[in-house]
# Entry
Amino acid sequence: MPLKKEIVWRVGVIYIFMLAFAILIIGKILYLQLIEGAKWKDKAQTLTLQDITIEPNRGDILASDGRLLASSVPYYEIRMDTRSTGMDDAIFNSGIDSLSMKLSELFRDKSQSEYKNDLVKARKSGERFHLIKRRVNYNQLKKIKTFPIFRLGQYKGGFIAIQTNLRIQPHVSLASRTIGKTTLGEGGNVVGIEGAYDKEMKGVEGVRLMQRLNGNVWMPVHDGNEVEPRDGMDIVTTIDVDIQDVAENALLKQLTRHEARHGTAVLMEVSTGEIKAIVNLQRNSKGQYKESYNYAIGESRAPGSTFKLASIIALLEDGYVELEDTVHTGNGEIMYYDKKIADTKKGGHGIITVQEVFELSSNVGISKLVTDYYTGKEEKFINRLYGMNLNNRLGIAIKGEGEPEIKYPGDKLWSGVSLPQMSIGYEVRLTPLQTLTLYNAIANDGKMVKPKFVKGLMYHGDLVKTFNTEVLKQSVCSRSTLRKVKIMLEGVVERGTAKNIRNENYKIAGKTGTAQIANKESGYSDKSKISYQASFAGYFPADNPKYSCIVVVNAPSRNVYYGNLVAGPVFKEIADKVYATNVDMHEGLKMADNEMESEIDIPYTKNSNRDELKNALNYLGINVNDEDVVSDWVLTTRLDSCVKLENRTIVQNLMPNVKGMGVKDAVFILENMGLSVELQGRGTILKQSIAPGTGILKGDLVVLEMSFN
# Structure
């Protein structure tokens, strides 16, 4: 074949091949666009567009006065992409030593060499998500962003920070078990208020469409369909932080003194059922007392002698006894079949009245009365207990309430000793909160209200829902019985087993309790293995009850286990604090009929703000002479019949006269003029380092000397 024809033929073959290949490519393009176009467009969108869930802010838990009990704080998980595209060996090697040193200095958990070895090893193995530190706070995060390598960002420095919200309780252990927690996952726990109101607090998730750009950067796409998250609501509890602190310290001291296993204390407002303080402390393996279980709500045990209140109410309601009736308690021991019931006083109390039976907590006396009148009519006694709502849970929102147990005649475990045993608080089970609710009903003129832990819900500072007091039973007994029971409860403290907590300032009404706790293996048969539960339940002031309280101490040692000695002092310390800080519980000073208002001594007043001073004096009923006074700040003079106010002029850039003023007002004036203030002592201001009328400049220091060092 001639050379020319061969060249033409070869070129033609190549041309035909290329033409066919071009036709194939065009065909494929047309196929992808026309036939599979919709499919690939959808797939492209899934790779570049994505709906991102926006987590809402979880609501806070607040004390009754608005102080924080629980809140979410942002923390960060710090990771490193050791094979980030923009980070070459030169960047890594030049900065690894400095980075390791900075991390070691910041966290103080590893040495510089340990950090370096970890990071070098991670880079060699190609880790793209290497964990450096969890639970890093915001201030630490700001520092980390300035560290070598990391300051280059995610692309060149491999820096990754993932935000997580950590739930914290600013007061640490204070009411921590009641405040509670939630844990993630299907098997997660819901504890306390956190768990009970999780739905209200967690808010509603939002959704936002995001588009991925070069460098794996996501940018929001405003398509009009995004859903903004709705923050969770804040929970306003009934807890009073100051009283809670007193209750915790009082209980802790007593648990430590008696080396007890655990204990609980609860303070309730009588009329509303609001829980003002609730403490649960348990000794751990290190001998420390921590809040690890909510005994007040969850532990259902034999209450012991505090249950005698229910027994005496039944006897009075059925008309079987009067306070003056007598009971022969003999030598302080009595047998019911093979069960001996004894009084704590050796030799017994002999013949005493029904009132004394209760006030002295005679086991023999109460059991004799109940068995004498209810043998053969056991159902009548139990129905009385059921009528006081003692067989039902309280139905509080917090999960884990213990089940009360008051068996009925004919039940499997009913026996010949059940009636006398139940009369003194055995063979029954109640939680401390259930027992307290009964005592609170007596204080509340018979009305039983449900314990309340939450007052309302707030959203961004506005109260959106309030929780009213729920009545469980309008009356647990008749007015006549109520009057008699109150006399006996006061008598326990005035003359009976709790005389040690009596005081001259206000009256306490209540009942001591000392219950044996059976050993799991040997029951009550092995006396050496039996432990005790000491308790005191009651209310104060007895003549006008405002608060009810229960204290339960489990397994006190050192041979002291009676309720009046172990639980009573805790009750009294809590009551003393509440009484001392609650003005409404104190009687006002009474004036004699011939004492005229004009005879009230005019008090000394500090130079102050005119409006605030007038409001205070008007509230106290003290006359004020402020004729011709136009200035905001005033000088005061005490006259025989009034407090006279005079103008005080403050001129900018001239040092004012703050002598005779209180610290708050003086500091307010001086700092608003740009001065720095140093205080020495306390009380009323006597001297000032810069003389009045002297020229001043912003930043000048003025030293104020007070009347007391």
